[in-house]
């Protein structure tokens, strides 16, 4: 049997860091939402009892480092599955971009194999398993819009953001999430107003969403990678309603309400950046 699953990227509308924990991770509070930019995974049952990863993208590891591989292995071991699977990843989400591409592939693998192997696990159970793979995986299992707390694994559903376009631009660099967290000065953070963002979502208030977009990790990534700041400034200059870096970067996204402005911003960015996307939010 064969199953096709979609693995959408996420953006952070807010990202706050509340402090450093004893386990080395950071206590965070983030509002995240999935967007219509997605990898496609094909899960195929195979005769041999092992997990195989296939991808044409040279930045995607085809071994145990792949988060989709780790997801399949985790399910196999935890539920004593003696069946093999080949996971073919059609990579659309830029790699090491702050868009949770690997985490979403892991989440899609958990959802897909739950179906393929008839495990009957709930989304909450899959999300809990996912947290063993990475901090963003629990959110990716649910998708939609949510508040994520703890190290990212405590997920509560939120209303969908007001309809708008999301323009994304990724400079030709990869950013290491652990390096960004390591260089964060936790005693000196300008905290996003998470409550105000949630309020804006609850009131379907587009201006409120735009005004309250904020990411504590920008204070590390922007000075470290000037090309990210440059893209941010250009996107603002081209007329996006609000612009922010996603996750630990380097992808920058802008919200745009009016179709008429979208083309101008897209074309302007394409002038100096290879990876530019214009997509919708998935919402719920
Ligand atoms: C930047 C974000 O993507 C925002 O959504 C997440 O906070 C990071 O999520 P992720 O990439 O799934 O993170 P993980 O794979 O669990 O961790 C990568 C590294 O980031 C750091 N890390 C991650 C999450 C967190 N709450 N505190 C941390 O300090 C740790 O050094 C960890 O070794
Ligand atoms: N399925 C996968 N797709 C992409 N990268 C993967 C995958 N599995 C493991 N990786 C590794 O993970 C690293 C980070 O890639 P990923 O695209 O997940 O980063 P990210 O979008 O910054 O993640 P996050 O936003 O969760 O911090 C890559 O350099 C790659 O080596």
UniProtKB/TrEMBL annotation:
Any single Pfam family the record assigns to this protein: GHMP_kinases_C
UniProt pathway: Isoprenoid biosynthesis; isopentenyl diphosphate biosynthesis via DXP pathway; isopentenyl diphosphate from 1-deoxy-D-xylulose 5-phosphate: step 3/6
Record's keyword annotation contains NADP: no
EC assignment: 2.7.1.148
Ranges where the GHMP kinase C-terminal domain occurs: 197-273
The protein's role, per its UniProt record: Catalyzes the phosphorylation of the position 2 hydroxy group of 4-diphosphocytidyl-2C-methyl-D-erythritol.
Family: Belongs to the GHMP kinase family. IspE subfamily.
Protein name as annotated: 4-diphosphocytidyl-2-C-methyl-D-erythritol kinase
Annotated organism of origin: Siminovitchia fordii
Biological classification of the source: Bacteria, Bacillati, Bacillota, Bacilli, Bacillales
Encoding gene (name): ispE
């Amino acid at each position: 049997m064969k199953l096709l699953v979609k693995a959408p990227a996420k953006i952070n509308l807010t990202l706050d860091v509340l402090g450093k924990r004893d386990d080395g991770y950071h206590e965070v509070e983030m509002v995240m939402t999935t967007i219509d930019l997605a990898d496609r995974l094909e899960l195929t049952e195979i005769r041999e009892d092992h997990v195989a990863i296939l991808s044409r993208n040279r930045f995607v590891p085809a071994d145990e480092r792949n988060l989709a591989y780790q997801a399949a292995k985790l399910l196999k071991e935890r539920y004593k599955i003696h069946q093999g699977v080949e996971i073919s990843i059609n990579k659309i989400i830029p790699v090491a971009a702050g868009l949770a591409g690997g985490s979403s592939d892991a989440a899609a693998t958990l959802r897909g194999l739950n179906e393929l192997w008839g495990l009957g696990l709930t989304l909450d159970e899959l999300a809990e398993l996912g947290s063993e793979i990475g901090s963003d995986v629990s959110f990716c299992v649910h998708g939609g819009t949510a508040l994520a707390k703890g190290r990212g694994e405590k997920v509560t559903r939120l209303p969908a953001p007001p309809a708008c376009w999301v323009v994304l631009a990724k400079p030709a660099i990869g950013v290491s999430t652990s390096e960004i967290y390591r260089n964060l000065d936790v005693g000196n953070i300008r905290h996003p107003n998470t409550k105000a963002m949630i309020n804006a979502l609850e009131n379907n208030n587009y201006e409120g969403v735009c005004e309250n977009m904020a990411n504590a990790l920008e204070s590390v990534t922007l000075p470290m990678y000037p090309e990210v700041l440059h893209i941010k400034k250009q996107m603002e200059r081209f007329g996006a309603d609000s612009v922010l870096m996603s996750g630990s970067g380097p992808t920058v996204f802008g919200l745009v309400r009016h179709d008429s402005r979208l083309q101008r911003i897209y074309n302007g960015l394409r002038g100096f950046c290879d990876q530019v996307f214009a997509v919708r939010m998935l919402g719920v």
